[in-house]
Amino acid sequence: MDFTRRDALILGAGAATVALLPVQAFASVSDDAIAAFTGGAATSEGGIELTAPEIAENGNTVPVAVSAPGAVSIMLLAAGNPNPDVCTFNFGPLSGSQSASTRIRLAGTQDVVAVAKMADGSFVQTSSVVKVTIGGCGG
Amino acid sequence: MASGVKPRVKVPKTASAGDVITIKTLISHKMESGQRKDSDGNRIPQSIINTFTCDFNGQNVINVELHGAISTNPYFQFEATVPESGDFTFTWNDDDGSVYTETKTITVG
Amino acid sequence: MIGSNLLRVASIASIATFAFGTTAANAQSLVINDEETMIIQAPAAAHLENMDEVFSGWNFRTVETQALQMDDFDNPGMIFVDQAIDQWDTVDGAAGESCGSCHEGGTAEFAGLRTVLPRWDEDAGGIQSMADYINECRTERMQAEAWTWSSSKMTAMTALIGLESRGMPVDVVIDGPAADAWELGKEIYYTRVGQLDMSCANCHEDNYDTMIRADHLSQGQINGFPSYRLKNAKLNSTHARFKGCMKNIRAKPFGEGSDEFRALELYVASRGNGLSVEGTSVRN
Description:
heterotrimer; A: alpha+beta; 6-stranded mixed beta sheet; 3-stranded antiparallel beta sheet; 1 helix; 9 strands; about 40% strand; globular; C: alpha+beta; Cytochrome Bc1 Complex, Chain D, domain 2; 3-stranded mixed beta sheet; 11 strands; disordered N terminus
């Protein structure tokens, strides 16, 4: 059979789709986690602050801080980890502020995502890219 | 009980009524993520602290659900309102069923 | 205050928007718990022919990593110091003794010890590191088993004892009976080995303060050891770090606790004479 330019384009498009799949898979896993947290409700921006280093010297221990005044709980996700779940802070009646810090593991350069559930049942979301470096000698 | 687990907690000894204080906690724990493989290529099962709770005189300050992406030797910093003198209790729940606790007293003067 | 290379790296980084928040240039000073000031920069010892100043490895880390060492609660290495405090009073061995049984003054008896180790020891007839003294106590007085060089108990105990010297400048003796070992250490430092054909000096003397891939190369000082590394989330001994470096350059490492590594430890320690013992440092 003749192998036409059109066939080549179709094949190429198929290959491109396959190549994109892993990225989409990651995105959907973290999207699923957000949907489970929000019950499918839409999230808006603003009212939540995520502090993370632009560059982490080692992905094993990355300090992050999150703050969302008026939040009931805040969920942290690492969108590029094999399992995106990091932790969820639930603030009790004696919490002094709706903020917390911890240290997390990042498998590579990726978005860290924070989603807060506010007292009125609405949700706000923010994210921050953290570049994860590899030691000079791989060691 | 996982070996060598030791909690550390930093709470001011005194405060004024209604003060917001900063609390830091650190506990020694491997936090085996479930993502690593042993030398034979078998996946090492997850074994982590899955919940951390801080209460003051029976009222909740913060409750944290942890997953495998929390670093070895989990660290938390957060703020609490102190209405009166009393005890902070800190509780870490391990996947293996162990529970580690620590108590700190604060005096409101 | 710091070499021109560093300034060059800093300006390149800021142009490229991914500024490393933290080159040595913006490291002001290392003050631990808001009260103990460390000497993180000092004039090079007279024997250092190719360098004018020495810098603690703390200078080369990012602000986030630096911050971890500025408060003993935030420093994850202190978990292991706590474990060593418990170990100190734990009876072990056939003699029924703990560390505290003999050392009634507690670890405070060892103030300053870390600054002069490793050192020539007449009785042992060689260079002795802190791990050697701990094991001598364990095997001879406690009649307990020796700890392996980089075991968690050993690194924790060296951290606890080292903490008593925190802030004091390193001051190892390199002449007299120590001279032969020091010369051996120097030879090892400058000898190219391994498939990559590199010596310690190629990175830590010729190229410190530059980037090796994404890593900011330090002078390889050991004043902060044992060191808590983010990489493996535990305390690392000096000898384990030497071993790691040798593996990275694909050389066959000397053994932990070998005479070669004791000699290298003495030599590298002497390159940092004048820098503070940092107790338990935090590195990447």
